[in-house]
Amino acid sequence: MSKYPHPVCVVDDDDNVREVVRDLLESEGYDVQAFGSAEAFLAANPEASCLILDVHMPGLGGLELQRKLNEDKRHIAIIFMTAQGDIPRTVQAIKAGALEFFQKPFDPDALLQAVARAVQMSALAHRSAELVERNLGIIGQSRSLRSVLEEVAVVARTDATVLIRGETGTGKELIAQAIHVMSERTGPLVRMNCAAVPVNLLESELMGHEKGAFTGAQTRRVGRFEAANAGTLFLDEIGELPLDLQPKLLRLLQERAFERLGSNQTIKSTARIVAATNRDLRAMADERMFREDLFHRLNVFPIELPPLRDRTDDIPVLARHFADLFAGRMQKPALTIPVEFLDRLLAYRWPGNIRELMNVMERASILATDGILPTRALSHLSSPSAPVSAARPPAPAPRQPGTTDGDRLEDVDRRHILAVLESTNWIVGGSRGAAARLGIKRPTLVYRMKKLGISRAGSDA
Q: For the chain, N or C: smaller number of CB within 10 Å?
C-alpha cells in the first residue's frame, strides 16, 4: 500500500520511459499511474500529487496540457521531461509553474528528489485550499500569497506562538482566523485589539478581575486569556501593548498561568497565542520601546504578509470579488470591469492595501449606474497623498504647437516598451523579462501592451 495519499502520474508516449519511471517510483513506495498520452490522462482525470510530463507528444503536448490544467485551476506540481534540449520551451514551462525540467536520459536520484518535493508541495497546497473551502475570505492565487498559506498550513496544527507582520489592510486577522480553524482546537478564537482597549483596562481585559478588585468592578470578569482556553487568543496591534503590562504577557507565554486582578489564585490556560502588528518590533526592542524577551517569545514563527503592491496578480480576482459583493448588496446586476479601470487598479501602489481596494470598489459600484464600473471613480488614486507607481507614466499632455505625433508621451512610452521587449526576445515575465527590466509587474506590462496596441505576431508574450 502506498504511503502517499495520491498517485504520481507519468504521461509519456515512450513505453520504455514510462516503465522505467514507474519502476523507479514504485521502489520508493509511490503509487504510480502511467498514461501514453495527455488525452488519456484527461479522460481518467486522476487526483494526482505530482505529474511527470513529456513535452513532445503526438496530439496534445505537455505544455498544452499544463496550460489546460492551469485554465481549469488544477494546480498539480509538474515535472517536465524531454529528449530535446529546448531552452525556450523550458523557460515557458517554468514561467507557467513547472517545478523541475529534466532532459532524457535523466538522473534517477535527482528525479526522486524532485518528486519528493512535489509531493510535499501538493500536500501543503491541499491544506491551503481548505482555507478557501472553509469560506474564510482569503482570496488570491499569487505566489506570495500561496507561500503564506503554505506556512499557515504547516504551523496551524502545532502549538507554536505565531507573530503575523504586515502593513495595515493586508488581512492579518484573516490569517489568524485561518490558523485557528486549521488547528482544529476545541476552544474558541478570542480577539483583543491592544490599541482599542483603554490602557487602564488592558490588564483586566486580558486576565480578568474579581468582584471589588477596583472601583466599578461590580462582578467577577473572565479575561480573554481564560476565555480562550483550549482555543486561540489573537492579540492584534501587539506593538501598542504598554511596557508595564508586557512582563505579565511574557509570564502568560512562558508559564501559561495568571491571576485575576484581586485574586491570588493561579489559573492555567492552554490558549495558543497569535499576535499581529504593523510595526517593527525588532526595531522597537532595540530602542527599548518593546521588551526584547517578549519579542523573542512572540517571534517563534513569524509570518510576513505581502502588501497588495507585491500581489498584483491578485488584484483582478479581488476586484471581481468586491464588484460581485457590492453588486449583491446594492441589488444590482453583475458589474462589468473595463480594461481601463483594471489598468488603473494595477498601476496604483495601494498604501491601504486590500482594505483600500475594497473601499475603492464600493465607491465605484455606487457610481456604476449603467452596469459598468466608471474610471472616473478612480480619479483620486493619482493624488499626491496616494502616489501611483513611479514606473507608470502620467497621462499624456495635450499636444503643444511645434511638436509631432512622435513626441507624445504615449508614443515615447510605446517605443521604449517595444525596445525592451525586443532586447528580451519578447519574454515578458521572469527575472530577465521585460517587466523586470522596466521595474513593473508582469500584469501591469501586459495591460499596458494591450492599451498601447503592442503585440508580436505568433508570439506567446
A: N
Long-range contacts from 82-86, C-beta under 8 angstroms, 24+ separation: 82/54, 82/55, 82/56, 83/56, 84/55, 84/56, 86/55
Position 268 in a domain:
yes
Residue 125 CB partners (closer than 8 Å, separation 6+): 75, 77, 146, 150
Pair (243, 368) in one structural domain = no
| Other residues' Cβ atoms within 10 Å of the Cβ of residue 39 | 15
Domain with 70 in it: what CATH number?
A: 3.40.50.2300
Closest C-alpha to 154, from 367, 300, 357: 300
CA distance 153 to 343: 33
**Where is the domain boundary, 256, 277, 304?**
304
**Cβ partners under 8 Å of residue 348, min gap 6:** 378, 381, 386, 388, 389
> Which structural domain range is residue 346 located in?
309-382
Read off the CATH number of the domain in which 419 is found: 1.10.10
Q: Which residue has the cell 499632455?
A: 397
Q: Write the DSSP symbol of residue 382.
A: G
> Is there a domain that residue 239 lies in?
yes
Residue 267 phi, psi dihedral angles, 5° rounding = -115, 135
On the question of pLDDT at 451 being above 80, the answer is: no
Specify whether the CB–CB gap between 452 and 417 falls below 8 A.
yes
**Alpha carbons 202 and 369: distance in angstroms, whole number:** 47
| Structural domain total, the chain | 4
Query: Rounded to an integer, what is the distance from CA 200 to the centroid of its chain?
Result: 38
108 and 236 share one domain? no
pLDDT digits (tens, 9 = 90+) for 217-271: 778 888 899 999 999 999 999 999 999 889 989 998 999 888 888 888 888 889 9
How do beta strands 232-236 and 257-259 pair? unpaired
Secondary structure E strands in 168-237: 189-193, 208-209, 221-222, 232-236
Same domain, 215 and 193: yes
Residues 141-151: tens digit of each pLDDT: 788 998 898 89
